[in-house]
Amino acid sequence: MASGDDSRAARSERKRAYKEAEVPMGIYAIRCHANGKLFVGHTLNLSAMFNRIRFEFAQRMHRVPELQADWERHGEAAFSFEVLDKLPPREEPGGPPPIEELKVLEEMWLERLKPYGDAGYNAPPRT
After folding, report:
1. Helix 65-74 with 46-58: angle, nearest 10 deg
2. pLDDT per position in the chain (127 positions), as tens?
3. Which of 18, 39, 69, 114 could form a disulfide with 30 if both were Cys (CB 3.0 to 4.6 A apart)?
4. pTM higher than the cut 0.85
5. Which helix (H) or strand (E) holds 39?
6. Domains within the chain, CATH numbers bracketed
């Protein structure tokens, strides 16, 4: 009976550790190596975002039609998913997600890379 209690306690501990684990948040890029174009975005969960993007492409429902068309034209092998920047883990777990920090960080990367027009898939900034 003790081993059942141990495995239950171990399971409970793994579950608690999973819930407390810091999820990597940051800025990502989707790069098309066939044409050199880039898409830059931000997310509260980098791993989940890469999975979501692959799913969207597979379902032909990515929110950027030109990027979807190039994915279909060139194939998955012509693309890479890159982490450009990560937010450092928060000092204290919990609290609201740092979405404003992510938006500022994304703006910095957009300014640096300028993935607009022939260089990328992002919409140019409004002037």
Report:
1. 70
2. 555 566 888 777 766 665 566 689 999 999 999 999 999 999 999 999 999 999 999 999 989 999 999 999 999 999 999 999 999 877 766 677 789 999 999 999 999 999 999 999 999 988 7
3. 39
4. no
5. strand 38-43
6. 25-88+95-119 (3.40.1440.10)
